Amino acid sequence: MDQHAHASDAAHASAAHDHESPEEFKKHLRSYYVVFVALLCLTAITVGVAYLKLERPIAIALALVIASIKAGLVAAVFMHLISEKKVIFAVLGLTALFFALVLALPSLTVYEHRHLITAGG
Amino acid sequence: MSDTAIPYMVKPNPVTGIPNGKFAIWLFLASEVMLFGALFSSYVLIRTGAPHWPPEGGLTSDLVSVPLGTLNTLVLITSSITIVLSWASCKLRNLKMFKVWMAITILLACAFLVVKYFEWMHKFELGHFPSHDNYFAIYFVLTGLHGLHIVGGIVVNLYLLTIGARMWNKDPEHFTNRVENAGLYWHFVDLVWIFLFPSLYLL
């Protein structure tokens, strides 16, 4: 195994390390524990921030940012997305696009509805 | 391999570069994203259209138990690493440790449902049913659908722990891939909760 593979973490374990020996594979397990601790800490931060009683827009933005970081860690390391094949990213890219559309369309409808009410006097 | 067997369940499909089972589970997860996405979209629409949230006034943290929600978050996060370790045990050719980690994962999933059961029962005792207001309608739909996914995960994981584990003797690589696919699904269930928890309990 080359030096680059040694430096990589457990996120590469799924595809990139299929042919590793058990001893080599064990080295990557440490990253799973690191991510686990990070997730626990981020959960504590999420709850702690909620008790600060920040203004709602700031609280929502902060909570979503922390949740996104947690989701990113789970997807990248636990789900091995960081070392996944291009076809998976193509599927997820398309999904992300439609997910954004699903989220945005009702909001646009609300905006248009309010605009019409305002225009109608 | 018989004529009816699905090809490329162990070796990567030359077209996609990954085994067919793994590609299939990612496609399934994509459809799941759209399912929960539609419900999140409804939540955003109802919430932004409401003069106050929750509709009765006060804070969402007054209506639900933040400590129980936090406990369930910790339970699911822990179950995520235990299922990774069960897969890692398969990769290390250690069936015994696979069974240990998978059993812990299932127990944690059951613990999540037990906590959720007590949360729901407490709501019902207070007369907070889905028809109470928009907050509780969304709360019960989203946590209920998520709970059903937990039940589905328990069924699959229980199968892999018991009769499904027989595959280990004749095709350990195929079995390891199955465990990985079950893990991908389970992590997705965890991902959904990571967003549900702040949305329904804290904001």
Describe this structure in words.
The complex is a heterodimer of chains A (121) and B (203). Helix content of chain A is 74%, strand content 0%. Chain A is built from 5 helices and no strands. In chain A, α3 runs antiparallel to α4. Mean pLDDT of chain A is 80; it is low at 1-16. With 203 residues, chain B is mostly helical. Chain B has helices at 20-49, 60-63, 66-91, 95-125, 134-161, 167-170, 172-202. The N and C termini of chain B lie far apart (54 Å). At the A-B interface, α2, α3, α4 and α5 of A face α1, α3 and α7 of B.
Helical amount among residues of chain B, as a percent range?
over 70%
Mean pLDDT of chain B: 94
Strand content of chain B: under 5%
Kindly state the mean pLDDT of chain A as a whole number?
A: 80
Q: Give the helix level of chain A as a range of percent.
A: over 70%
How would you describe the shape of chain B? elongated
Low-confidence stretches of chain B: none
Question: What percent strand of chain A?
Answer: under 5%
Termini gap of chain B: 54 Å
What is the rounded Rg of chain B?
Answer: 20 Å
Tally of helical runs of chain B: 7
Along the chain, the helix and strand elements of chain B come as HHHHHHH
Radius of gyration of chain A: 21 Å
Taken from the alpha-carbon principal axes, the silhouette of chain A is flat
Continuous helix count of chain A:
5
Topology:
The complex is a heterodimer of chains A (121) and B (203).
Chain A: H1 3-7, H2 22-26, H3 29-50, H4 56-78, H5 86-119
Helix pairs in contact in A: 3-4
Chain B: H1 20-49, H2 60-63, H3 66-91, H4 95-125, H5 134-161, H6 167-170, H7 172-202
Helix pairs in contact in B: 1-5, 1-7, 3-4, 3-7, 4-5, 5-7
Keywords:
heterodimer, A: 121 residues, 5 helices, disordered N terminus, B: 203 residues
